[in-house]
Design a protein that fits this description.
The structure holds 2 protein chains of 2 kinds. Chain A is an alpha/beta fold. Chain A has helices spanning 5-13, 29-43, 61-68, 89-97, 117-124, 141-152, 160-168, 172-185, 198-204, 211-222, 225-235, 241-262, 267-272, 281-290, 296-314, 321-332; strands spanning 2-3, 21-25, 47-50, 77-84, 105-109, 128-132, 154-155, 194-195. Chain B is α+β, with helices and mostly antiparallel strands. The N and C termini of chain B lie far apart (65 Å). Chain A binds chain B through residues 47-50, 58-61, 64-65, 68-74, 94, 97-102, and chain B through 148, 150-151, 175, 177-180, 246, 251, 278, 280-284, 301, 322, 324, 348, 350, 364, 366-370.
Amino acid sequence: MLLKRAAWLAALEAPDPRVRLWLAFGPDTGGVEALAAAARRALSAAATTDLGGVPLAEAPGRLLEAAASLSLFGERQLVRIDGAGDEAAEAVRLLLEAPAVANPVLVTAGNLPRGSSLRQLAEAHPLARAVAAYEPDAREWPRLVAEAAMAAGVLLGPGQDAALWAAADGNLQVLAAELAKLATAVAASPERPARVPPPLFSALVAGSPGESLDRLLDALVAGDLPALDRELQAWGSESSIPLLRMAGRRLLLLAALRRAVDAGATPRTAVEARRPPVFPLALRDRLVAALPRWPLARLEAALAALVEAERAIKRSRSPGDLLGRAALLVAAAPRP
Amino acid sequence: MKLVVERATLLKALGHVQSVVERRNTIPILSNVLLVAEPAGLRLMATDLDMQIVETVPADVEVPGATTVSAHTLFDIVRKLPDGAQVALSQADRRVTVTAGRARFQLQTLPREDFPVIGDGDFPVTFELPAETLRELIDKTRFAISTEETRYYLNGIFLHAPAGVSPRVLRAVATDGHRLARFELPLPEGAESMPDVIVPRKCIAEVRKLLDERDGTVAIALSPTKIRFTIGAAVLTSKLIEGSFPDYSRVIPTANDRLLRIDPHTLAEGVDRVTAIASDKVRAVKLSLDHDRVTLSVTSPENGTASEELPADYGAPGFDVGFNSRYLLDILAQVEGDQVEVHLADAAAPTLIREGESAKALYVLMPMRV
């Protein structure tokens, strides 16, 4: 039986003992793993039989055997198959058609097409509960981050939810990993939630741009040469290659948005429709303002110049980071 | 190092030590056997860091010395030498030369100083067992050892001398969480203060291989972390599994009131026949118990059904129970007499299987849902 995410999770809150198969599949691997983690918690097995390495196509009865076996020590058992595909369909059919089983089975899979025999079996059978994990709707991000933070025991401060979502790039598995890292740092748990001080948060969250770097990139796309120069001075003697690459990523984002604008979208709709969504929200306004100043030809030239600058820095007897800084200033300079 | 050793003697010892060496090793020295030429003969040693085997064989030692060479390569060479050959081993310039008749091999060596030795230490408990008894102990329990790495503490045989049992006994127990095998014998002299230990599966397998060639007595030495078996000229030392073996006594049923008495060979042959229809897909066999008969049945979704009625001694109310046929056959294979007692409660409770109340071995099997 195919359920929506919320219904699948609700079904796990009081699992029907008659349900034999819990299937989570879909292109969003992070979402699939988050669903599987919820299932593992809900089914609260003391012992797990992992059939991930068993060639089920050759021995399809192994799944039923594991699911039908009672435990000598009386603990609840869960049978798992991770990364399944249609080769597991026959094993699942035997499981669903058997007169009785003892242990629930949790199967995770990647993107199963509609014609997939495993997916069809699970979607159609009354003793199975299937759920698909697609990339989350951007509108759901506050709820998703809040749920994940609550599960990790992390109390988020202002702006931290958006920064986490941006760092995770919409991947729930990455989001959970980031939150687990924060929870470890502040010894937080669901029973004892704790806040993460902003400096620690900035230091720990992967890809969380520092304020200085943000200002530098904003100055670049805004063509604000004095501000850019200031930020480059503040960068000090650090290598400029990371700056070139971060600037390249920002210009690539602008190029994608520019193509949407050239295809007829307004700058605002282009930014709002971007997937994965643009975060933090304040960046959206800055991109909308910058887009008219960045025709595609200019973006392409600037990107090529940044790549060439990195290449030049790496050559022997190169003036080094001066080239990188110069390239950034040239790229930012308004065209006549 | 320079010595001459009889080929059959060397081959037998190499067969023992090379078995401990893993085929694939990330640490090169662990692929090698340590050869020590000393006045007493040639000592061979191999280890996988969890287990170490040492065996000394008679040899004419001209120049004492020691080095290490690839265990599997040396074994393969000696295996292919003709019967009765005298094998000369000599070491020079980081190479060992193996000569037999006109055959000559030069093998790369690694320094003996790099060879790890894990077998040292004190073994405060020592006792002896007849080889035949140790063979029986292993055979009656090892099939139930778990292969599931996550429950590592079940990956061996639990040896202990339980308190409160009079007269005192030495017990061996193995379980994989679905079946359990227990074997006991009178506590050997010297084992009174033995710690509870879990002997790893690989060690059990190596000991069992050595016992194939040996009668007489086996010396067993124990510390809280290691066990040592001295079997003839071979000394096998193994680390023990660190962990707590579960309280198995609570899963051995004592009040199962439905008793089935049946010829174990008839039952095993019947199970084997009816499961033929299931190919590899389904291993469950259903036992339908009724007055003085058992009906075995298997249903295969593809091939059809099979059933067979067997005569038995059964007087309790009839009911159906399913078992994993492979597990049931494993247990029945251990029963030597012409009658086995199967103590049942219901289709979801542990079932006790034994030859009789005074049998040294007992087995517990969990049913399967069928």
